[in-house]
Description:
Layout: E1 4-6, E2 12-18, H1 23-35, E3 37-43, H2 49-60, E4 64-68, E5 71-77, E6 89-90, H3 95-106, E7 111-115, H4 126-134, E8 138-141, H5 142-145, E9 147-153, E10 157-158, E11 161-163, H6 169-179, E12 182-183, E13 185-189, H7 197-204, E14 209-212, E15 215-219, E16 228-230, H8 235-247, E17 250-259, H9 266-274, E18 277-282, E19 291-297, E20 305-306, H10 318-325, E21 331-334, H11 347-357, E22 361-365, E23 368-372, E24 378-382, H12 388-397, E25 402-407, H13 420-425
Parallel strand pairs: 2-17, 3-16, 6-7, 10-12, 11-13, 20-21, 24-25
Antiparallel strand pairs: 1-25, 3-5, 4-5, 7-9, 8-9, 13-15, 14-15, 17-19, 18-19, 21-23, 22-23
The structure holds shikimate-3-phosphate (S3P).
Amino acid sequence: MAEVKLNFHxxxxxxxxxxxxxxxxxxxxxxxxxxxxxxxxxxxxxxxDDCLSTIDCFRKLGVKIExxxxxxxxxxxxxxxxxxxxxxxxxGNSGTTTRLMxxxxxxxxxxAILNGDASIGKRPMKRVITPLREMGAHITGRMDGQYTxxxxxxxxxxxxEYEMPVASAQVKSAILLASxxxxxxxxxxxxxxxxxxxxxxxxxxxxxxxVENGTISxxxxxxxxxxxxxxxxxxxxxxxxxxxxxxxxxxxxxxRNVGLNHTRTGIIDVLQEMGANMDIIVDNEDAAEPTxxxxxxxxxxxxxxxxxxxxxxxxxxIPIIALLATKAKGKxxxxxxxxxxxxxxxxxxxxxxxxxxxxxxxxxxxxxxIIHGExxxxxxxxxxxxxxxxxxxxAIASLLTDGSVKLDDADCIAVSxxxxxxxxxxxx
Length: 428
Ligand code: S3P
């Protein structure tokens, strides 16, 4: 656990950042490259700890994966030829790896044990296991599969029709990945649309998937063809600098290569509604995953209400949005976001407790938080709870506080943004 003292206080933030690869898409590139027979190449891969955990798991299944900087070459004999792992599949801090692997292994001919770190040990797995068991999966685990460690024995699966009880791309993707090997057509209904990277990547790998008005249909047994995946920059990482640029007194930050998939751009909607001074130049609207450049400048902000179907489109950005709201004129209300309680840590408690230490006027609610704006923040000693996004929220706050900010453990930031501190130096 590395403690750091940050004394970045800098009212003027200027410069350019090329945002590192998207975490969700990087995971899926390794998974799809391992499913497809042949050689899949990936560029712009995120070298974050979570994505390295995914690589490690597939290597244990016998898939050949070579990393050269942010380029990856995956050589697979196809999912029917994965080897039974000799060791536990260790998923580290990664919920996406744990839940999507369950979907993939459910219809395989493999027995495997999945386990992760202490945070993974607290995250709900029943939400994935319930639909997978309905498809015929054999999964056992602590508290009847509510928590890791989990054991899975692949079996013949059948298609299901499933109404999503929560907006979760991890649950949706686990079912979709299981449906690859299921007999029949799997149908999933989503009330609020969660990120759709799995659906897009299925198409990119040559599969036929139908998505219409929140209903997804996928016919099992289709061949998935190896291809090239270009991973765009992660808008969830860009979000930290979007907020820094909007809050600082004299700033202009240019963020390049930002993924602009509509299911992820809730942060842009929020910044626009709060009155941010921002330009977006779309580079590549028709790509499998669209990208663009965002220029953010010092902004006069107003408080807003964030709720409903916007929440899944910015769920990972709520910690940094809460920091943003401390500067806005008036009140910001975040609701319908109870999912925050089951992220890497309980992010409602963590955000509220740590922002209070910085001098914010903020209160927790059952499904979100209320932030009263126009607070001048001060230095403080913060806890990260081992959660990368709480750590980065604290580090960005240090750009704006009088006095230094101490983080008890900054190592966790490498989960999604290993070059975060280098990128901060590009703008101060
Ligand atoms: C992710 C989905 C989201 C998100 C997580 C990554 C994914 O989680 O919070 O960081 O890659 O599918 P949920 O599916 O639990 O909402």
